[in-house]
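Q&A log
Question type: sequence-to-structure
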Amino acid sequence: MSGPAKPRIPGVEHIVAVASGKGGVGKSTTAVNLAIALEKEGARVGLLDADIYGPSQGMMLGIAPGTKPAVRDGKVFEPIKAHGIKAMSMSFLVNDDTPMVWRGPMATGALQQLLMQTDWAPLDVLIVDMPPGTGDIQLTLAQKAPVSGAVVVTTPQDIALLDARKAVEMFAKVDIPVLGVIENMSVHICPDCGRESHIFGSDGGERIATEYGAPLLAALPLDASIREQTDGGLPTVAADPDGAIAARYRSAAIALLAALANTGAAGVPSITMTDD
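Response status: OK
Response body:
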């Protein structure tokens, strides 16, 4: 499905779609923590909330309700900064209680406006938090923007893996490489006894990654603190950057930066491994 070259977003080196085949797998939580982890590893990062119907990144980033982006020359949005990254979302433009009762063309038009008419520069990586599924928004991003690759988020549950395969196959059809898989809710560790329970199954993310020749970037635990911190506007990597869970996100960020460097584009910060 190759086509004419897509126009680059000024000042943006890489666009990475964070996607899932179905809702409820923690994709948006993963996207915001991955974005902050990339910033912690030295990258200049933006986060675009492309879930036009159900935007959540404003709340997850702790941006006060009613905060609006500045508009330059009547047409260019200034992204809102939080936790070291630049963010843009429909939640900054409408009230929290306003439903987006739009047909597909209106939603895709809104996506293009948020993507193309935001002053992102300079960025090494723009993370795009996609809506679940394989519909209009996904196709519009693939057709209109030079996406470097995608990260697919799933849980180990069989039904989630079924939909994750659909997401991977969709990206293959639009010539976007899958740079990695993140397995969310991988294991629950009892806070009292330390026993590990694979509530949603085990090794599902690794099976998908192996099947499609992509790396497993991280296996993240089912931990109440991830939800509590992100719901409170302080995602785990920002709340506890040196903690064990943040270390998993940051390891995924390092692997993602390495994968982007292998795509051959300039501008990705170099990663130096040390023993300390």
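Response note: Confidence is low (pLDDT under 50) at residues 265-276.
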